[in-house]
Write a structure and sequence with these properties.
The chain is an all-beta fold. It contains no helices and six strands.
Length: 71
């Protein structure tokens, strides 16, 4: 599992969390539950070892992809 702490302005919560591989293929899409929680938990147990990117997406918000590694 990977835990993300997300901070955003009121009314700008992401709609989904996307995980990409280094080739830009979307491997995981998880809807973001709109609540007051700023913590997101993703199950990455099915990902092979390697480098990946996580990105928050929505109508108002489009984040810069952040890298993470799976060992």
């Amino acid at each position: 599992l990977i835990h993300l702490e997300v901070k955003f302005a009121v009314g700008q919560a992401p709609e989904s969390v996307l995980v990409y591989d280094v080739m830009g293929n979307i491997l995981l899409t998880t809807p973001y539950a709109t609540s007051s929680e700023n913590d997101i938990e993703l199950d990455i147990s099915k990902l092979s070892s390697g480098l990946y990117f996580v990105k928050l997406s929505g109508d108002i918000l489009e984040s810069i992809p952040k890298p993470f590694s799976v060992y």
